[in-house]
Amino acid sequence: MRRVAKWWIDSMTAFDVFINVFLLFGLPDETISAHAGRAMLEGKVWGKAVSYALEYCPLFGRKHVQGAIAHDAARARAVVAAELAAQALETGNDQKIT
C-alpha cells in the first residue's frame, strides 16, 4: 500500500510541476504552490492571493506554501547532488560528494 501511495504522490507532484511550467510559465521542477509562494515573496498580487487560498484550504492546510518551497528546494539539492556524482564518475573523480 505504501508503494502505491508514494507512486500517487510522485505522480501528482509531476502533474503539478507540468501544469506550473506549461500553463503558468513557472520554473522547471517547481510546483504551483512553490511558484505562488515565490511570487508572494516578490510582492505579486496573484502570488499573495493563491498563497492565501492554499493556506486556508482544508485540503492543504497551514504552512503549505512554506513547506512546498522547502520541499522544492530539497528536491533541487538532490538533483544537483546526483548530477555532481554522475559528473565525478565520468571524470574519474569518485570522491564522496557532500
Please provide a written account of the structure.
The chain is mainly α and 98 residues long. The chain has one domain. The chain is built from 4 helices and no strands. The protein has helices spanning 2-24, 32-41, 45-56, 64-91. The longest helix has 28 residues, at 64-91. It is globular and about 50 Å long. The mean pLDDT is 88.
Structural descriptors:
about 100 residues; mainly alpha; single chain; 4 helices
Short description:
The protein is mostly helical and 98 residues long.
Low-confidence stretches: none
Largest sheet: none
Structural class: mainly alpha
Number of domains: 1
Rg, Cα atoms, Å: 16 Å
Order of helices and strands: HHHH
Shape: globular
Question: What is the count of helical runs?
Answer: 4
Topology of this protein?
Blueprint: H1 2-24, H2 32-41, H3 45-56, H4 64-91
